[in-house]
Amino acid sequence: MPSDTVKHALPAAMMATEHANTRREPRFQLRFSIEVCGFGPDSQPFRVRTITLDVSEWGCRFEMPFRMDANCVFTLQALSDDAGNPAKCAAVMFQVVRVVESKGRWEVAAWKIAEAKVWPVDLPAAPPESPDADAARMRQDGSER
Amino acid sequence: MALNGKLAAPPIATGGAAMDSKSFGQRLNRGRTEAVASVGTVEIAGLPQALHTRTFGGLDVLFVPLLETARAMITFIDRMSAAGETRQQAVSMARIRLASEMLQDPSFTLATRDLEEDNVYTIDLENGTLSVNARLYAVVRHRTSLFKIKIDGNIAEGPYIVQNAATGSVVMQVDESQMRQPGYFTTFLPGECLRAHIEKEATSTLEKSETGLGEVRIMVPVNGKSVPFLLRQKEGGAGWDIIDASNNQWLGVLPQVALGHLTQLMEGLGRIASAFAGRLARPV
């Protein structure tokens, strides 16, 4: 991912519904223990515990032992922080944004669909986007095509 | 089954609740061939966002597939609960599954809730209800009437109550087999809404309205239904117009032959009215 994608964030109310390309916020390589609950490609329900690869206020990446379908919805609950201390966090709904196979496992990138606290630590918010940033980004996107 | 086990995540008790082999997308395909693009939003109670479609939101396309998929979720909830999962967890899983199935169809995306749209479907898996706010269009003689309706019913077994959302009056009660018939939402139901509206308006018109000078209102039985007509004298007294009183549409001019009968009828009624008024005017 280009480094400039972590510079700005949209207002919180818009974050849940903005297109993936327009959501930019800083990521942190924090390894939280999480429990993921949803439905696999075979439509069978699963509940799996795994570790995050990195997290942001609205998103995260983690590894799964099997594939998850893009766009599907699941719940994610943080069980402990990166030091192993138990966390008291509620389960929050996420949507799968991207799935990549890596060494026999599946790396899942996801984005939460509700404005709720997910992680056992507070993450620094991204600076608010300037009013003309949308236009600037559209110009940039257009010139890249 | 508790979610907070110490080691591996506990398995989910499905009670052998094998998933229905037919997906939402497969169900939706059935109505697509003659579908007219229509915007729609599906709100699942407990899901923070709504599912939005710009093309397949019409009642004729979405209602039955959505009902079938929601019904499969109710069965899923019952089986999970019977197998030992808490009902709350079972409902939560069903919510996720319903949303995921719909999002596998490329025409559905997540969107903010409370969008003002033509068709809004609300599914409450906790209470097992489906509610739809929609607009229907009835076209008669190149004139279009718009109706805002609300359909409420039980997902598992129906029946479904159709209400006029503007007046709150019940238009009809229907069962699922009727709604599965081709053209039900595009032709039959709008027609029923229009019929109910005309009947109500005709009744209130005859009861309340004051007919102007040179006007005759008459209800004519046509095919078992009462159709209101208005005969209105042209300015200067040169002939009479025939008007459909239900929508104030001009239908034609009263033929000369009928004009003679109408004149006779009015003169006769005038004489009767005069005599009746004379009796009333006598002192008691």
Largest sheet, strands/sense/barrel of chain B? 8 strands, mixed
Shape of chain B: elongated
| Low-pLDDT residue spans of chain B | 1-7
What's the tally of helices of chain B?
A: 6
Largest interface: A-B, 28 and 25 residues
- Amino-to-carboxy terminus distance of chain A: 17 Å
| First-to-last CA distance of chain B | 89 Å
Beta-strand portion of chain A reads 35-45%
By DSSP, the count of extended strands of chain A is 6
How many domains of chain B?
A: 2
Counted up, domains of chain A total 1
Largest sheet of chain A: 6 strands, antiparallel, barrel
Helix-and-strand structural type of chain B = alpha+beta
Mean pLDDT of chain A: 79
According to CATH, the fold-level topology of chain A is: Thrombin, subunit H
Query: What fraction of residues of chain B sit in β-strands?
Result: 25-35%
Helix content range of chain A: 10-25%
* CATH architecture assignment name of chain A: Beta Barrel
If you compute it from the alpha carbons, what radius of gyration of chain B comes out, rounded to the nearest whole angstrom? 28 Å
The top level CATH class name of chain A: Mainly Beta
